[in-house]
Amino acid sequence: MEKVFCKVKLLNSLSGLDITNKRKKDKSILKKECYNNLMLSRVYSCAVIGLEGVVVEVEVDITAGKGGVTIVGLPDAAVQESRERVFSAVRNVGLTFPRKRVIVNLAPASVRKEGPYYDLPIAVGVMAMTGAIPAESIESTMIVGELSLDGTVRHARGNFTDGGHRPSARIQTDFRPRF
Fold first, then answer.
1. What pTM does this model have?
2. In the predicted model, what is the mean pLDDT of residues 90-117?
């Protein structure tokens, strides 16, 4: 079953009003385009706290506004640098990076996210939002990996890369670099 979300449908359900008959020039109510018919994409990743793995939801949203990437959810400096690696990697593999505002939320916000291990999940989330990959293909999938500027996936150190357990029952598949 294909998931189709559109801002018009969301606004209709929230307000209980039929806004489809309103004039199209009222841009605050009716947006002309839905990015891949998704409100946001969700990719799972992992944070290591001691010896335990904690599931981190990487939510990517593309909105109107000045282009740029904002990462929220208690990221350290290496995670903040992911925006540059992801931008370069997506462009250098021949895909188009959106010229809109990209917001990345790393949840739960109470867990400190460290290291470059969120590069690949962020890039996959952006590609799902732009339609480069089907969003259904990343449901229930954990993705961990660092990206080089040319798009090559690099090894991520930690116990989540050595074939250990999946930290949650909702994860059915995982992509982890092994070298």
1. 0.74
2. 92
